[in-house]
Amino acid sequence: MKLSRLTSNLLLACGVITLFSWTTRAYTWYVNDLQSDPYLAWLHFPIIGIFLLIGVYLAYLGIRGRRATRQQKS
Hints:
Elements: H1 5-36, H2 38-73
Helix pairs in contact: 1-2
């Protein structure tokens, strides 16, 4: 499947935004939630991990798509 430059840019942007928002959420989880209610905090831990992995994968796909479209133009 071929990705256009626009699609690659959108994937990269979604990945970066996801990583930024869930990294700040992980910080908030560590500072606030983990200190107040450890049981509830550990329920959120897998969600944070899954969304960080999704963000990394989206950014990876966006970067690979951008590199592939750059090589096709040359």
